[in-house]
UniProtKB/TrEMBL annotation:
The gene is pgk. Belongs to the phosphoglycerate kinase family. Gene3D superfamilies: Phosphoglycerate kinase, N-terminal domain. SUPFAM superfamilies: Phosphoglycerate kinase (SSF53748). It is found in: Cytoplasm. This is Phosphoglycerate kinase. The keyword Nucleotide-binding applies.
Length: 394
């Protein structure tokens, strides 16, 4: 695997695919700079080698050239974080972009306009990829969040470069996932949460061989409970997936993988933080009530499992953590994962909701690694080859 450390960028122009798809407020100010910070050490490495950097990214899902999706809005934040004045050009290909790239001096940074202002980007158009490639002489992919897309700038472009590599962020993501999926210390515990079994089926099937214990939490747990004859009241359930849930339980048995389901729930009579709350055994929830979080017994049992782990994968919350009264199960999981990490386990957290939860509750610095790409991470967990990774490895 060729990484940025394998190349000396002196007097080279590095075309770097980053993921600067960051949130903006109504004044077009960046409200979360995590993704810019994540790319910083890759950019600084190139500048310290006395190379120049041409950054390309998408922002949002524009339909054509839309002012509110212009990357010019993030120039100030990027300049501040990198400590280098970031130049900007109002296109990605064509004369203006070529001129700006040609004029770029060593140790300078240029940001191209939003790639998705051109429909050819998401279409994976070869001519567009080739035009982009002419701006630099080394290609660096550091955008894990888009690695599962076969877009022009993430996959197609690589074929036009002799020199190509992964940036620091991509390298960390791949190594962290491989540490969980390919070379883990055992026992391996996976926590899968979130609303639906259907969105995690392929993940479950792919990791059953790789984990010793699988904790299933969140809304998806109720499909498993009902499939086994439990009463779940008005809790979320995918009735058409109950047969599949039973198959998964049988498959786990045959592979000697322990599946841990919640044993109790915090219930509510409405989906609201002002609802009346109660506790119930997970398989004895009355009609008119729904389980919105895991209960104390489940938290304690999951804690015991996690404290024995040497490798932990966490994808998905334990309950409706966005509503404060139902956030405590997810917080409890976070505390357990943090405690196990402090005791020597390697922990990887990924997926939009679980990343949001660990940041919201302050666990992001208490786990080993927080993945930056929800969709890309899920596809790797499903055993798929990501186009953005395959393009560099070819």
């Amino acid at each position: 695997m060729k990484t940025i450390n394998d190349i000396n960028f002196k007097d080279k122009k590095a075309l770097v695919r980053v993921d600067f798809n960051v949130p903006l407020n109504d004044d077009f100010e960046v409200t979360d700079t995590t993704r810019i910070h994540a790319a910083k050490d890759t950019i600084i490495k190139i500048l310290e080698d006395e190379g120049s950097v041409i950054l390309m990214s998408h922002l949002g899902r524009p339909k054509g050239n839309q002012e509110e999706f212009s990357l010019k809005h993030i120039v100030a934040a990027a300049t501040d974080i990198l400590g280098v004045q970031v130049k900007f050009v109002e296109d990605t290909i064509g004369d203006a972009a070529q001129q700006a790239a040609a004029n770029l001096q060593p140790c300078e940074v240029l940001l191209l306009e939003n790639l998705r202002f051109h429909s050819e980007e998401t279409a994976g158009d070869s001519a567009f990829a080739k035009a982009l490639s002419q701006l630099g002489n080394v290609y660096v992919n550091d955008a894990f969040g888009t690695a599962h897309r076969a877009h022009a700038s993430t996959a197609i472009i690589a074929q036009y470069f002799e020199e190509k590599c992964f940036g620091h962020l991509m390298t960390r993501e791949i190594e962290s996932l491989n540490k969980v999926l390919e070379t883990p210390d055992q026992p391996v515990v996976a926590i899968l949460g979130g609303a639906k079994v259907s969105s995690k089926i392929t993940v479950i099937e792919n990791i059953l061989d790789k984990v010793d214990d699988l904790i299933i939490a969140g809304g998806m747990a109720y499909t498993f409970i009902k499939a086994q004859g439990g009463k779940i009241g008005d809790s979320l359930c995918e009735d058409d997936k109950m047969g599949l849930a039973l198959e998964i339980l049988e498959k786990a048995k045959s592979k000697n993988t322990n599946i841990h389901l919640p044993v109790d729930a915090i219930t509510a009579d409405a989906f609201s933080e002002h609802a009346t709350m109660d506790n119930a055994a997970i398989d004895e929830i009355p009609n008119g009530w729904m389980g919105l979080d895991i209960g104390e017994k489940s938290r304690s049992e999951f804690h015991t499992v996690l404290m024995q782990a040497k490798t932990i994968l966490w994808n998905g919350p334990a309950g409706v953590f966005e509503l404060e009264p139902f956030s405590h199960g997810t917080i409890s999981l976070g505390k357990s994962v943090a405690a196990s990490t402090a005791a020597g386990a390697f922990s990887l957290v990924g997926g939009g909701d679980s990343v949001a939860a660990v940041k919201q509750f302050g666990f992001d610095n208490q786990v080993s690694y927080v993945s930056t790409g929800g969709g890309a991470m899920l596809e790797m967990l499903e055993g798929k080859t990501l186009p953005g990774i395959a393009a560099i490895l070819d």
